[in-house]
Structure formats: C-alpha cells, structure tokens
Amino acid sequence: MTFRKYLVLAGVAVFAATGDPMLSYGMKQVGAVSVHDLPNLFAAILNPWVAGGIVLLLAFFASYMNALSWADLTYVLPATSVSYVLLALVARFALHEQVSLRRWLGIALISGGVGFIAGGPALTSHAHDENSAGASAVRETEPASTGVDR
Amino acid sequence: MRHVYTWSAIVLMALTSVVGDVLLARAMKQVGDVHALLRRSGVLAVVGRILGNPNFFLGVAAMACAFFSLLFALSWGDVSLIAPAAASLTFIGNAFAAKVFLHERVDRRRWIAAGLVAAGVALLAG
User: Count of domains in chain A?
Assistant: First the structure.
C-alpha cells in the first residue's frame, strides 16, 4: 500500500459522502419531477448543485474502479464505508443535526470494521502467499513491453 | 402485501448490487493495476481497456437494475428502512460472492469487518 493508494480509498469515501447530499440538495431546489414531464429532468442538470453532485459521483465511480483494479472487493467496501461516518459527522457539525446515541453506536461499529481490515493485505485473489510483495508480483498480467514506454 | 413488495424490492436491489460489484471488480482485475498501467501506457490505453471489457458493461447494467429496484422500493416503503436494509444485505452478500466468484481469501478478519459494517450501517440509517 502506497500513499497514493490510501489517497484513492479516501477519494472513494469523500466523493460518495459529498456527492449524494449535494444531488439531494439540488433536487429539493428543483422540486418534484413528474414522469410525464421528463424534459424537466434535463433542466435539473442546469442547477449548479445537481451538476456538482453529478461531477462528484463521476469522481466517486472513477476512484472506485481505480481501487478495484489493485484491491479485493472485500477490502475496498469496508475500507470506504468511512463515508457513512463522514456523512454523520457532516450532519452533526456542519448541518447541526442531532445525532442520536443509536447513530453514534453505528459509527463506532463501522469504525471497528474498518480497523479490522486495515491491518490485513489489500489483495488476496491472485496471491498464493500471504505477503503483498508476492501478491503484486503475481498481479503483473501485462507482458513486459520493450522500451517504447513513456 | 405492501411489506412483501418492499422486501422483494430490497432483496432484488441487494442481489443486483452484488452482481454489479462482482462484475466490476472482475473487470478491473482483468484490466490490471491502473497505476502501473497509467505509468506504462497513458490514460487513453487505460480507458480503452476498461471500455473494451464486457464485464464492465454487464456490471454497469446490473448497477442500473439496482437503481431501478431502489426506485420501486421507494414507491412502496420508507427510505429509512430501504437504504440501510439494502446496504447491509449488500455488504454480507458481497463477502459471500467475492469468496465464491472472485476467489478472494475472505478470512475471519474480513467476515468480522463485513458484519460490523453491516450492523453499523443498519443502526446509522435506521
């Protein structure tokens, strides 16, 4: 795990936690869209909050795909569930919502789950030995190219 | 009857999410480590390899099905039940599917992590 890879995982969590609320905030401004009035749905994209939300969700998808290219699904999903914790913290400290004891307990459980996988290897699916150095050696599926790389 | 519809939609949503996640994960494993690939052959090659992968499109199609199941579920039940229930089921389902279909080594550490996160999500959004 390099610093850059931790950055990608953080990106997945942050973009997921910010994209949905932004989209939801924008759609509340646009108002209810009826099924018989679909052109209004395209007009909604002109709302800056909706547009921003879409950009953030695209960024989420890109970093999610990036993470899946070098880590297990069962590693990426718990690691990026930090986004639920971020959402609750944003609700508490930025939006000044009341966060109940039940929700704090949920935050504690999720943080515990993240802690559990954080110490383990990121990739096991192609590895036959426990250490991640061996894993990354097995991961090289591309044939070695001959000196024409950038 | 309403409960049956809501829970059917929740289960359908979790199932299609799991299928989508597994297909996307498989597609990206076939593409290979994006960081190494970027260094070697540039952005266009990476985008080309992703768009040339059939699993990628199947995965996106499954994700679209999950989204429409969400819309169906929301028309019958409350978001405070649907979102956490579907997310929790997806976490557990993914652990099973990753072990069976992706041959990931889901050891005790990862089972506990998936269980804790699923329980936490259920509490958080409930």
Answer: 1
* A142/B32 touch (CB, cutoff 8 Å), yes or no: yes
What CA–CA distances, in Å, run from A148 to A1, A137, A143, B40?
28, 22, 13, 9
User: pLDDT for B60-108, tens place per residue?
Assistant: 999 999 988 888 888 888 877 888 888 899 989 999 999 999 999 888 8
pLDDT in tens, A4-39: 889 999 999 999 888 877 887 887 787 766 667 667
Asked if B120 and A81 come within 8 Å (Cβ–Cβ), the reply is yes
Which among A117, A127, A136 has the least Cβ separation from residue B110?
A: A117
Q: Does some domain include residue A148?
A: no
Q: Map out the domains of chain B as residue ranges.
A: 2-125
Chain B residue numbers touching A127 (CB-CB < 8 A) = 105
* Structural domain that includes position A73: 3-134
ipTM of this complex prediction, to 2 decimal places: 0.87
